[in-house]
Amino acid sequence: MVIATNTRVESLSKSGIHQIPKEYIRPQDELSTITNILHEINNDDKGPQLPTIDLNDINSGDPKTMENCSNELRKAATEWGVMHLVNHGISDDLIARVKAAGESFFSQPVEEKEKHCNDIASGKIQGYGSKLANNASGQLEWEDYFFHTVFPEDKRDLTVWPSTPNDYIPATIEYAKQIRALTTKILSVLSLGLGLEAGRLEEEVGGVDELLLQLKINYYPKCPQPELALGVEAHTDVSALTFILHNMVPGLQLFYGGQWVTAKCVPDSIILHIGDTIEILSNGKYKSILHRALVNKEKVRVSWAVFCEPPKDKIILKPLPETVSESEPPLFPPRTFQQHMEHKLFKKNSDVIDPK
């Protein structure tokens, strides 16, 4: 089957095909690691599980309780680089509105969504899209998405945001504002864990004015051959931090301890990833974990990822002087954020387990 250049994965999924086009089939070495995500998540295995951090304790007012919570968060950032956050301070009602708005947008006919399509070739990266350009190994990913900047306010282009449903814009604006406040809180804890002043990491990634929050709603349609495809291929996030909501359908896997570990769905949680930017600034003390998304044939999966990114060219990313010593030399060369993204983009797929 030949895929038209404008084919959406949702359209393929709903077309009644029983075999996916060859462009979506992963290389043989990857296929041996792809499991039935729904079957696996229902098996109560006793393998490693990513940590859950209760942020309620960080506001307790009791110094010992606050310090214990901070230590747990830093331990998770050091050992895993990913964690579930519960009692994060963002209301259930707001999160429900954000999810309802995103799901309502994607429930529209593809023709309606196409009115918001992006055009990567012309530099219009915001909007509705699919990964249509082949990667280095020639595979495509089984997902459609909607991508746009949500914070700071002066960097938003509301003309590319969906006007349907009505609550999409107000709910997303409020959510972005609250995620931005949560970002400050997390970066403060991570800074103190490196022996730095509380505001140092935030300052190093652009501060109040320059740190950019980008929202990507990932839509993973049902896949007739999920054992052959990936929703998102193995990667580490280039961001400083990434915050993820999902519709409680499993799919996220982390490469931990030499194996792929499936993240269980924790109700009312936000998943936090440490990105490459913080790994570089901390000289590898905080980890940016390799992860991917699996798909299934029974349920549509939707996730909402907010990437917190430094400005592309204004800051040189390199290990902070306080994280470097004679016994711990710098692990990363100086690069701008743009240069780091380009470096990763052109890396060969054989390097995927060593994503630096």
Describe this structure in a few short sentences.
The protein is an alpha+beta fold and 356 residues long. It has helices at 9-14, 28-31, 37-42, 63-79, 92-106, 110-113, 168-193, 200-204, 207-210, 276-281, 337-345; strands spanning 52-54, 82-86, 127-130, 144-151, 212-220, 232-235, 241-246, 252-256, 259-262, 270-274, 291-293, 301-309, 316-317, 335-336.
How would you describe the overall organization of this protein?
Strand 1, helix 4 and strand 2 form a beta-alpha-beta unit. The chain has an eight-stranded mixed beta sheet. With about 350 residues, the chain is α+β, with helices and mostly antiparallel strands. It has eleven helices and 14 strands.
Question: How far apart lie the N and C ends?
Answer: 36 Å
CATH superfamily: B-lactam Antibiotic, Isopenicillin N Synthase, Chain
Strand order of the largest sheet: 1-2-10-7-12-5-4-3
Mean pLDDT score: 92
Q: Count structural domains.
A: 1
**What is the N-to-C succession of helices and strands?**
HHHEHEHHEEHHHEEEEEEHEEEEH
Runs with pLDDT <50, length 5+?
Answer: 348-356
Domain Fe2OG dioxygenase: 207-310
InterPro entries: DIOX_N, IPNS-like_FE2OG_OXY, IPNS-like_sf, Oxoglu/Fe-dep_dioxygenase_dom, Plant_2OG-oxidoreductases
GO molecular function: dioxygenase activity; L-ascorbic acid binding; metal ion binding; oxidoreductase activity, acting on paired donors, with incorporation or reduction of molecular oxygen
Keywords: Dioxygenase, Flavonoid biosynthesis, Iron, Metal-binding, Oxidoreductase, Vitamin C
